[in-house]
Specification:
Arc Repressor Mutant, subunit A, mainly alpha, 10 helices
Length: 227
């Protein structure tokens, strides 16, 4: 017996305890490999044409492992969408991430460029799988809810980003204008519909966002200090 009357740990218990961090790390690595495979296949093939056996083959694992980690194909899609949007599997919300603080550095136009570039980066890695999410939303309730949450989350990040750019909370009408302008729909129309480069798209969005700020009297009362 161990001190205090507790059973003395066995050698097997000690081995299990010793290996648990390794097992947890291996499980996390397997999960991320599966998610990366899902991001690739959902983005390339869409919702309906991507099967769990295909994901398992791409990830080099078993279908049962996917079911154990994510429960369903829909659960896997939700995890893949989350990682594709933020760029990693850290559960920290985008509005709480340190990279957002870079929006508060430089002159106003430099801040706008930082914000637009950040947003374009999100679109570049997430729009293919968001297309699969929209496809899934036609028949899957969880996907419909996640799609609605995506639009809400995008506006929440826009509110936080503009507050950093202006140095104070942005008026609602300005948030609405920038939210509509720097949107995945506009980005897709310019890049895919008209063949614009990412550089040209970024420059135009910065120019239009700056014009929207200049046309908003309430926003012009919020002059950020240069940092």
């Amino acid at each position: 017996m161990a001190p205090g009357g507790a059973p003395k740990p066995t050698r097997a218990d000690s081995r299990a305890g010793y290996h648990s961090p390794l097992r947890a790390r291996q499980a996390a690595e397997t999960r991320r490999t599966i998610v990366d495979a899902a991001i690739k296949l959902f983005g390339e093939r869409g919702w309906a044409a991507t099967t769990l056996p295909l994901v398992a083959a791409e990830a080099g694992t078993a279908v049962d492992t996917i079911y154990s980690a994510f429960g369903t194909k829909s659960g896997l899609l939700m995890a893949a969408v989350d990682v594709a949007i933020v760029g990693d599997d850290d559960p920290t919300a985008m509005v709480d991430r340190p990279e957002l603080l870079t929006f508060a550095k430089g002159r106003r136009v430099e801040r706008l460029r930082t914000g637009v570039r950040f947003t374009i980066g999100v679109y570049e890695r997430s729009l293919p799988i968001l297309k699969a999410l929209r496809e899934a939303a036609a028949s899957d309730e969880a996907s419909r809810a996640r799609l609605a949450q995506y639009d809400d989350d995008r506006r929440t990040v826009m509110v936080a980003g503009l507050a950093l750019i202006l140095g104070a909370p942005a008026p609602d009408e300005l948030v609405d204008a920038i939210w509509a302008l720097v949107s995945p729909e506009v980005y897709t129309m310019l890049i895919d519909g008209r063949g614009w480069s990412a550089e040209r798209t970024e420059a135009w969005l910065v120019e239009m966002a700056n014009a929207a700020l200049s046309a908003c009297p309430a926003a012009n009362q919020r002059t950020p200090r240069r940092t």
